[in-house]
Amino acid sequence: MSRPIARAGIVVKERLTGATDVVSTLAAWLRERGVEPVDERQLSRDQIPNAVDVVIVLGGDGTLLSMADRIGQAGRDIPILGVNFGSLGFLTEVRVNELYSSLEALLNGTARVDERLMLRAEAVRAAAALDQRIVLNDVVFTKAALSRMIELSISVDGCAVTVVKADGLIVASPTGSTAYNLAAGGPIVHPAVDALVLTPIAPHTLTQRPIVIPASSQVEVRPNIDSDADDIFVTYDGQTGYPLHAGDLVRIERAPQPLRLVKAPLRSYFEVLREKLKWGER
Question: Looking at 21, 39, 46, 61, which residue is catalytic?
Fold first, then answer.
């Protein structure tokens, strides 16, 4: 059963030309239906998830991703609707001409809403919690631009799996499987599949291949750092990150709650794949 929507957050991609008129019209449309619009002139992106009942993103996948992570970090169970102003996105499926029909369906409780698995990542340094993040797509370990190949020790549910010798490692959700994971040769995983994906980036040996594991798993990644030359960075959804030190540990598992993503009215996941990737075409 859908909950009433009293306030709607509006977030616009930075330097997006042509969105001003859409925002003005959208705000008026919402007010006519008794919904208070809240935009970035009133509250910051960090504040919006705690103040609204739905987030409307005007832009692309990157903008939606940044807000999805903020919703997860805030622990809110609110839907997010992404409107793409360019080509169709994997996450921002709704086109501009579908905005109001999608919103109407959301307000009356008939919208298609996917629940997308999110990842919880906790970094530990010197046996103390260093950082904690909620992300939608992936946690990525990479080397610095001039670093040599890095080593990462991986365990799953306390069992040693392997030591990856590569340019890096991607731990991805099903939603993130069509992001960096796909570019690195990892598999496409349907978002309804309850799984995580571990994909080495340019591994030293061909025997180190991507692997799909249960979403109930807890993954631990330990960087093997011998000197200052072995710079290893961890990044979260390609948005933020920091260097890791010798002895650090990053623990990754399913987040406590999923993201609720409003779907395009009639478009299926496979239609998105075909349009974005030319998937299945001859």
Answer: 61
